[in-house]
Amino acid sequence: MAAGDDLLKLGPTGTICFPHKHILGDAEGQPEWQLHDRGMDRRGYRGTYVRVRLQRINCDFAKVHPADGEGKLWWAQLNKALGTSSSAFVNASLFQFQGAARLPGGGISEVALNAALALIQAVAPKDEVEGALAVQMAATHSAAMMVLVRLGGGHGGERRVAALGSAAARLMRAYTHQVETLRRLRHGGAQLIRIERVDVNDGGQAIIGNVRAGSKAESE
């Protein structure tokens, strides 16, 4: 690696820290697959995620602080990650995360909270509606993983295993429904099917034009 290249650094908690590199202008108008190939997300962030540090108050609550001490920049990144300019929305979301985004068998978790934020940044919500949906997706994923861990222990009778399996399946279905809801919200519910070529064999017939149920074809 040449001198001056970006280097991965090991953070104080053993996590990999990426250099902050915001290049939003380069991301505008670019297809998503090109952004992915360049290591960027839809907002133009490359290799960086907004993170929080928790100061535990008790087993169920902690105060949230910036991971690197840059409070103003950190808060702006949180607003952008959640698709909002509302401080109340950010505060409420962070408070909800503490209860919903946890690691299996544990209480509030800085790792789980930052993982949930990373998932939300991958969704890249554009407003509070998408931001709320992204929060639900992160919480649902966390809940499903906790249930699967309990199921993987193999303890208890058949009824307990069946109940945990059913709960995990419902949570994972809910997650896929949330992903589909996000797709419909962004692109609409209708799906367009385009046929580029039509082959008509001998003796066959084809109708070209607008065809409506219960009416004659408006053929050309």
Give the H and E element order.
EEHHEEHHHHHEE
> Rough shape?
flat
- Any idea how many domains? 2
Round the Cα radius of gyration to an integer and report it: 24 Å
- Main beta-sheet strand count, sense and barrel state: 2 strands, antiparallel
Structure in words:
The chain is mostly helical. It folds into two domains: about 5-50, no CATH class; about 50-185, no CATH class. The chain has seven helices and six strands. The protein has helices spanning about 25, 30-35, 70-80, 85-100, 110-125, 130-150, 160-185; strands at about 10, 15, 50-60, 60-65, 210, 220. The chain has a two-stranded antiparallel ribbon with strand order 1-2. A two-stranded antiparallel sheet has the order 3-4. The longest helix has 30 residues, at about 160-185. The protein is flat. The N and C termini lie far apart (about 65 Å). The model is unreliable at about 1-25 and about 35-40 (pLDDT under 50).
Describe the structure using short key phrases.
10% strand; two-stranded antiparallel ribbon; disordered N terminus; 2 domains; mainly alpha; 220 residues; flat
